[in-house]
Amino acid sequence: MGRITSFTVKIDNEKRDLMKTFCERSGIKMQKFLEKAIVHEVKREIMKEDLYILDEYEKHGKKSASSYREFMKELGLKE
Question: Taking phi first (over 0 means left), then psi (-120 to 50 degrees means alpha), and beta for anything else, what does residue 66 get?
């Protein structure tokens, strides 16, 4: 585990109470619950992005990838 830091987040009281009650009933510390929830959501969002990329790839007839130069040009960047 890395260094521990603290930060303040404002959430709806009902959601906090829901989490607190769940954690108490389950014997889980809220800190661990939040850490796992954050990791889970980040992985979920990354998977959504990956699925979008795969879907776009399949929609366009599985063309081969663009060349590096074309990619840089599309991004408006110079090599």
Answer: beta
The residue-averaged pLDDT of 1-12 equals 88
Q: What is the largest CA-CA distance in the chain?
A: 57
The verdict on pTM exceeding 0.70 is no
- pLDDT in the model for residue 54: 75
Q: How far apart are CA 76 and CA 79, in angstroms?
A: 10
Token couple for 79: 């090599």
- For residue range 20-32, what is the model confidence (pLDDT) as tens digits? 999 999 999 999 9
CA distance 63 to 65: 6
Which residues, in sequence order, are CB contacts of 29 under 8 Å at separation 6+? 23
